[in-house]
Design a protein that fits this description.
4 copies of one chain form a homotetramer. Chain A is an alpha/beta fold. Chain A contains 10 helices and 8 strands.
């Protein structure tokens, strides 16, 4: 059975930060779990492939993969198999993150693989046009992330509020079901609040949490900014 | 301290076979460990990224990654970090497998990353010329694998014995230290014996073991063919 | 001023066939021009980059590029610049052909480059879902080409008529202006007639024309099958 | 018959600069030809694919392609065919430029294609290790270009003289025939003189010439710095 997708949602992308590798990935996931339990906001974590299983065993919050390849089981050395991340305990996956972009036909194929494997698909896009285009591929989540803002600490919801509202409007014209997240530059509770006010159902965040001195406190601030 | 590289060596590449995913990856690694303990031949296993940690915890034989990206810790969503596979318990890695080829500058960078992280580097090449070229990049292991033979059940040591002896000769001209393996099509004990007779120090094998009804028996046959 | 896009349209993709390289590219383009002048059907040709200028100088029919990179003028050795193909005499370009697929964000960027440079954009897609998704990116032409049929001589309009009608229906829901072509396997006049009957405005053809003994006769047969 | 490779050699890479596109590519090539005729230094030009034929027809100096794909004639839309650049009048090609890097197996395949087609192969590498490795693949020319210096105006021969002498030494150990060029940051006659003094047989230059107010004068300065 496909895992339930609940909102408002914060997905924490661990990227390949040392602060979120190995044992520290588990610690960070536990901090996220603690923040989630004290709030009405849902939090999911996206650790590296090598840490998926240990994190999924350590916490009860949803664990996402950072990528899946458009492959079937077989002769694909060094690739990421949907069945493998699923067995590791994953319930969802990022697709086409700006740091791991794939071809249009591959996006389509991976979303279909996710449906088959009952994995939540979170498709990342870089502007209103590609987001609307992506809406037609029916991912469960669309996360808009202008690449030029990633890692800057300038929130897309602040720097480009019109990009967010445009995206929401364009996506909703063709797709009423997809959860819409807003990524890039999220670092304060206010950024999250603004993102929701602009019509999204949550955020995709990375360095703002992972590289914070106290990720738990940052996530609590994010959650507290949301009225639910 | 860099892990010791011992020969004769059989590396079992799990690829993305379902037979070697998740719980079955651990079982297969245990079968390999059992075969190794009853023989003088060294056996290493290369599971998928998601299974590296569980396999490394379950067995005492060396665990290899199937790939590493030429990245440093940081903003690289969906990539494979040397530090992450190392912390998962890996002692070595395949590089440039014919199903996961990378650019020349990346091969050089990954081998250097491996030296920094004290990971054994096993560089796969596709013919005598690229193998000799690769020898100059000083990987710990060079594994020659003509892509057209992979998965065919026709051993390179039989189909192209001269490719193997040529490679050994060319590599040895510039590099006396690298362990030389011979991959592609290995499925019988005889294939392993011939590979060693041709001057290699072992084999890289995948489907011949992973898709066998009884991988343990196949590996025992491989080991028994070797006099050491 | 943007070149006018007229239908019914046959685009002949020269690929990298020797039969359509260099002097033979010019001859083939002239054969296409002759067929076009004797018919009400419009014909365009898509030679290799190296032949674009000579072909554009030799014939009056529209010349397309086979690909454009999502780059601006500058430090991009070995890439295809929109300004360069334009100056060579090109009026349109294929984008994302199944043999030259690119990332979603690149497709979006190249279509925008085409608008800036007043180049007709012909986006190739591989199934009804990606075609509908592509329609949102507002290319001038959408050409549906199931990769598994390319070069088989089995026309998509015959093998998968429902794929064609589905695509037309889905594309038209969001985009009334794009010209829709149908590619893959077109080799007889009948294939073209069926493609038009299924709601497309033309075809994208390669080996059926390029590798024919007499490309002119084949193109005349294509044109004669169309009532306009 | 394979074209003769003469030294000292300056190859001017036109990249995708607007200053070297279309008609301006021909003008720039003529300026290079004029400088060459007044000097003992050989000059070759590497325009964009779309300009190869017109440039080759306009000048008598050698014309290089910026890239070739490792393909045979056939179904490869949007790729660069050795036979096509050859027929356009090309006598040589850059391979693996830092802005167009390819896989190790592809480098090997393209060098072999060049031998078959009698095209001079100029393999670009990024450091002493990869250069020595590349020497084993037997390209006609090896051009060392540290990517971090490209386009900076800081000459590798000045910034990293030891990288150049190291490369020369390492390459010469295994390959006595390859012409060695030194690229990146060449902008003054002195840079060229130093490059030759360090043991190279010439330079690969781009912006220093292409973006100069008067490319002819810059090339003359380059040539005059050389005693031959």
């Amino acid at each position: 059975m496909k895992p339930k997708l609940q909102t408002p949602l914060i997905i924490v992308n661990f990227k390949t930060y040392l602060e979120a590798t190995g044992k520290r990935a588990v610690d960070l996931a536990k901090a996220a779990e603690r923040a989630r339990k004290e709030s009405c906001v849902y939090i999911a974590v996206a650790p590296q492939f090598t840490d998926l299983k240990a994190v999924a065993e350590a916490v009860d919050i949803p664990v996402y993969s950072q990528h899946i390849d458009s492959i079937k089981p077989g002769s694909s050395t060094g690739h990421i198999l949907a069945e493998a991340v699923k067995e590791a305990g994953v319930v969802g996956t990022l697709i086409n993150h700006s740091e791991r972009q794939i071809k249009l036909a591959e996006i389509d194929a991976v979303i279909k693989l996710c449906k088959e494997q009952e994995i939540i698909s979170c498709l990342c896009t870089n502007n209103p046009t590609t987001s609307a285009s992506a809406a037609y591929l029916c991912p469960d989540i669309i996360s808009i992330e202008p690449p030029e803002l990633i890692g800057t600490g300038v929130a897309v919801s602040k720097a480009q509020p019109e990009a967010v509202t445009n995206t929401v409007k364009k996506v909703r014209k063709v797709n009423n079901e997809a959860v819409i997240l807003c990524g890039a530059g999220i670092s304060h509770g206010e950024d999250v609040a603004v993102a929701l006010k602009l019509g999204t159902q949550g955020v995709l965040v990375a360095s703002g949490v992972v590289k914070a001195k106290d990720p738990y406190t940052v996530l609590r601030e994010f959650c507290d900014s949301v009225k639910c």
